[in-house]
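Input (structure):
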C-alpha cells in the first residue's frame, strides 16, 4: 500500500488567490477603459454639438451683417448726361459717411445735385473755374451698373 502524502501550504492556496485577484483587477481595468471611452465619446459629441451651434451662429451673424450693410450703404446708379447734344454715360455714386458724391470714371469733381437734374463737373471746385454744366437725361439703378461693369 502506498500512502499518498498531500502537501499543505502554510499560507493556504496562494495560487488560486492570485488568480482571483488578477481576474478582479482585469475586470476593474476593463470597466475603467469602457467608462473612459464612453466619457471621451460623450465629451467629443458635446464638443461637436457646441462647435456646430457656434458655426451656425457665426454664419447667421455674417449673413445679417452683410444684409444690414447692403441696406445702409448707398447703391451706385447709372446716369446719362448731355451737353450740346453729346450724351455721356457714367456710374454715379452718392457719398457715404462724409465721402463726397462722385462719378467713378472721371477725374473731375462733381458739384450740384443729381435730383435737380443738373450736375457740374469741375476741374477745381475750390476756384470754381473750369466747371461744365450737364443736364441729366436718364437715371438707372444698381442692376444696370452691374450689367455695365460686366459688359466692359
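Output (sequence):
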Amino acid at each position: 500500500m502506498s500512502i499518498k502524502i498531500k502537501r499543505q501550504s502554510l499560507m493556504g492556496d496562494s495560487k488560486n488567490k492570485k488568480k482571483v485577484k488578477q481576474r478582479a483587477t482585469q475586470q476593474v481595468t476593463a470597466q475603467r477603459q469602457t467608462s473612459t471611452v464612453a466619457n471621451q465619446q460623450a465629451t467629443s459629441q458635446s464638443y461637436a454639438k457646441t462647435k456646430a451651434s457656434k458655426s451656425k451662429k457665426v454664419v447667421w451673424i455674417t449673413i445679417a451683417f452683410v444684409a444690414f450693410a447692403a441696406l445702409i450703404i448707398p447703391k451706385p446708379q447709372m446716369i446719362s448726361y448731355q451737353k450740346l447734344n453729346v450724351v455721356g454715360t457714367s456710374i454715379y455714386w452718392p457719398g457715404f459717411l462724409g465721402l463726397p458724391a462722385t462719378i467713378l470714371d472721371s477725374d473731375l469733381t462733381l458739384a450740384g445735385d443729381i435730383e435737380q437734374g443738373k450736375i457740374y463737373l469741375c476741374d477745381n471746385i475750390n476756384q470754381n473755374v473750369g466747371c461744365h454744366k450737364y443736364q441729366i437725361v436718364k437715371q438707372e439703378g444698381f442692376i444696370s451698373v452691374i450689367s455695365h461693369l460686366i459688359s466692359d
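Notes: The chain has a mean pLDDT of 76. The helical segments are 14-72, 142-151.
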